[in-house]
Please model this.
Amino acid sequence: MSNLISVIVPMFNVEDYLEKCLESLVNQTIGLENLEIILIDDYSTDRTLEIAEKYVNNYPCIRLFKQAINQGSGIARNVGLREASAPFISFVDADDFISLNTYEYAIEIFQSTNVDILIYEYEYFSGTNKMYKRNPSEKLFTVDKEIRDIQDYPEIIFATSVCNKVFSKNVLEGLIFTNSQIEDALFSTLTTIKAKKVYVTNQFKYFYRKREEKHKPSKTDSYFLNKESYLDHLVLNEEINELAIEYPAYKSMIDWFNVRSLEPFLRSILTKSFFSHSEKKQYFNRAKRILSSSESQCIQKLEKRISQNTIEHLKNHNYYGFACLTLIHMICNSLVIKLKTKSKIILKITSVLICVVLAQVLKINKKYRDVWLITERGDEARDNGYSFFKYLRNSYPNINAYYLISTNNKEEYSKVNIHGNVIRYRSMMHKMLFVNAIFLVTAHRGSIEPWNYASYKKYLSFFSPNQKYIFLQHGITKDDVSNVLGRNNTLFDLFITGAKPEYDYISKIFGYTNNEVVYTGFARFDDLYDEKIEKKKQILLMPTWRKELAWSQVENKYENFMHSDYYRRFQSFLENDRLANILESQDYSLVFYLHYEMQMFSECFQSENPKIIIAKKENYDIQSLLRESAILITDYSSVYFDFAYMRKPVIYYQFDREQFRQKHYKKGYFSYEEHGFGPVLNQEKDVYDSLDYILSSNAQIDNVYQTRVNQFFAFNDRNNCERIYRSIINLK
Model:
């Protein structure tokens, strides 16, 4: 036998520790003929390379790779993964070492159990023999065990290091390390979730060095000393939180991980002077979004961990609206005040209870009874929520319908205020009307709830026993998002759909009963045929977002964006002479409107052509643009459904289709080739050809696509809001 295990060792300035590490590898009892040791020097500036080369000369099983620049251990490990030839993979950091029997026992376990991952016990050590506390994963190692369902051992989610593991190469397929200071955690979590079987043992150990020399702290020990680490930490939690969407069975484990790991992060950030006020605000808001979806038992675990000193500190400081509401009790979305009585009983007085009580008083006035509470994102009025609210105010003025919107968006607020019954988003009145609402109507889940809705329903639903939650949606559901919007992950009482195939798909695979999903058409469809809107000789270019760009937390975010394929493709499109010729010869203009999540990058795009407008959401209304434009060019944005509903031509420009699928959505029922409403293209020149063809037919939709549209939308009228209204009334 040869090369049973490939051992990958990234190195950077570890001259004081490398020999101990390598000695533990070359003296493995399995024998060197079964090992492939891959060293990757990450451009060390001390004697690391010299020491490594000495071992390479003495041991043929050791291979050495040199990085031309320092890129971090994640990139170095990726080099090792590419070069590894053995069926099993192990990672060892160059300042640590392992038991001499590690790989002999590891191979025996793999051969006898056929597991995907072996996790072995770890122990911290230092030069002073100081004791260090381990994380909850230490409970795994009390006895050896084979784990077939990781939910039986939720503490495994905290085993985030890749170093105390041996992997079957198959489970690593398609995975790479990111270039961040916490590259271990996401990689390790993904492999653990993907694994069919995991074996845990305490028969050998990984010895993790805690560096106590101030001038040579380890990567982990120096973790919270710089701004980049905080960015990495937050992105990690966001990425792991997204795993709950793809793997909903593990949501409680992921929630526990996020709650526990965000506690020191949030406490630490308060004291760091290198963060500006606005940066702290941004970080707290992002952490709040992560924690707001956590299950209540996870939050209770966090509450037990916060010291009284922390509570007092946070009570005296309102950190960007966060206070200690997330750190202590996200269930109530407010500060928990603890009062110790003589009998040592802890009482909790929360603002949610105050709102509940005041809401009952508010009911004395009949206009605050049987409320229909409606919103979108909380800062907008340009989607299904606003269209439906407007319809109710005009057609059913006796209904107590109220619209939630932030006063920060003065233009949108004023637009809604014309119809009356506008409520400031996140205000006390918002919370009281939430309690009094019989119908919660929203286009975006998570926007209308001032508190964790699942916990509210569980503990306080007797205050509003007949309350129903109506989901209007933001766009037609075409992808498989059942792990997000399926019955097991929502509390919707009514799911509104905008098209017949969408209705059939959701009814079939999302887990709702027949009366919980209805096909009515979208509320905003009623506004698409607005005779007051002047039709223009205008092309609308409206691509959707890219998560990896919109949520990027690199310091030079905008420079990074301008190196992306997304930017280069669309900037090239805007600059092309052929587009300029088309616009000039046909007397057309083009409006380039970026997705809500990408609007921050609008200023990166440039055009000197007066016929090209780079639109910002503050100045342009999406629905108006859709109505007045003659042709739509998009990639994957669901606005093409609205455009097709008006029987106008669509062009799909999809230059990154495979990458987009991998990073964004799981394919559903909709095929662009079979069901799409226009040509599907991946080359810029083909888009111009298609534009020429459409314009030659006076911008009319082709018969093939017209037929598809008619089959997709069974309704083609202005009665969508009325159908929604009737469906809601039937819930009573």
Observations:
- Confidence is low (pLDDT under 50) at residues 296-349.
